[in-house]
Amino acid sequence: MATTDPRVDAYIQNAAPFARPILVHIRESVHAGCPEVEETIKWSFPHFVYKGMLCSMAAFKAHCSFGFWKGSLLEVPPNGTPMSQFGRITSVDDLPRSKELTRLVRQAAALNDDGVKIARPKRTAAKAPPKAPDDLQKALKSHAKASANFKALSPSHKREYIEWITEAKTEATRRKRVATTIEWLSQGKSRNWKYERKK
Questions:
Q1: Is residue 78 predicted with pLDDT exceeding 60?
Q2: In the chain, what are the domains?
Q3: Across 43-185, where does the E strand assignment appear?
Q4: Report field, pTM of the whole predicted structure over 0.90
């Protein structure tokens, strides 16, 4: 038995006039393809749930979006984004016909019936610890306190100093930045100390 949510009714009613027929078309197709689907609101827009997330729709100022939670496993047009496999929808004509959309809903529901999971992308390897350029290393050797403070910085704070120095456009700017880095490090300051919250 399908479960509707009055919040979805309100969402459609409050959408821009161009969006209402699009949202109604999507909603009807989802219910036709999966009669046991349940409606809910998540992250402020309508979602359809059947043994897990099935699909969602949203209305914006000038377009709508619609996407399947496991869209990468369905036969959908390749012109969309992860949230909307159908791109920017500005009219019902931008969507597949009801029969085709209902077929896709059935496919998505079958994936949930079978307990199919989407493989999460592997985490990228952590960035290698930053290596100080030669001019900075040389300057640090002459300033023990700055060197000790630099070694104590987290890799991300070290990288901020290193990138600031290496991105200098001229040699004169680079020398000035190395000198400023030594001065700030001697005072125990990070590269962006001006923007840090005071304790």
A1: no
A2: 6-113 (3.90.1150), 134-195 (no CATH)
A3: 45-49, 53-59, 64-68
A4: no
